[in-house]
Specification:
single chain, mainly beta, four-stranded antiparallel beta sheet, 13 strands
């Protein structure tokens, strides 16, 4: 690369000459380019991150991390920073949230793209699902809104977890279907897509 250095002439007024001269010095002060580094291999750009998400239990004694182990994505629960409690495979699930409910359960929020079919204003939508993951055999897991045909097992907003009288409840936006009887279209059907706010028992999944 070449630069044309501007030099003041005797015809220029003194002040203008000084300004042009200063600009010329700045333009001509070209830094020596740094030595180019070797480019990263293509495999590095597609490599999964070591840790994608993490969460600390209410007591602070346990940590859950969404990590990659031997090329596989897992949720790893750790106690006292060294003791591995369990590893839950998640595959290529689109994880959107990870938090503790209590010391022995996790709440995993994920999403997937669904085809909506006829009657909607768009062809596809990203739907969110909340699942309770148990960390011991004595605790049951399940899906929020997954126990009744009256509610599709999708959430429209997560509004927190509260412990009330020793039990944990989650507050989620969801859709309530209406039941139609008689005819060929009997059963639970969508009346509208306006969400309601529900209080969900995260032990029994009752609403």
């Amino acid at each position: 690369m070449s630069l044309i250095c501007l030099i003041g002439t005797p015809e220029m007024p003194n002040r203008l000459s000084r300004l042009v001269g200063a600009a010329a010095i700045a333009l001509c002060a070209v830094a020596v380019p740094a030595q180019a580094k070797e480019p990263l291999p293509i495999s590095e750009y597609g490599k999964l991150p070591d840790v994608e998400r993490s969460a600390i239990s209410p007591s602070g004694d346990r940590i859950a991390v969404l990590t990659t182990m031997q090329g596989k994505r897992v949720i790893l629960a750790i106690e006292d920073q060294t003791k591995a409690l369990t590893a839950i495979a998640v595959g290529d699930t689109k994880v959107r949230g990870l938090r503790w409910i209590s010391e022995d359960r996790l709440l995993l929020t994920s999403s997937q793209t669904e085809d909506l079919g006829y009657g909607f204003t768009t062809d596809k939508a990203e739907v969110f699902v909340a699942q309770v993951l148990p960390l011991s055999a004595s605790v049951e897991g399940g899906t929020v809104f997954g126990n009744s045909p009256k509610y599709p097992d999708i959430i429209i907003g997560n509004y927190g977890i509260r412990q009330i009288d020793g039990k944990h409840y989650g507050f989620f936006g969801g859709i309530e279907l209406v039941r139609r009887t008689g005819g060929r279209r009997s059963g639970y059907q969508l009346d509208h897509a306006r969400p309601y706010l529900f209080k969900v028992d995260l032990q029994t999944f009752e609403i």
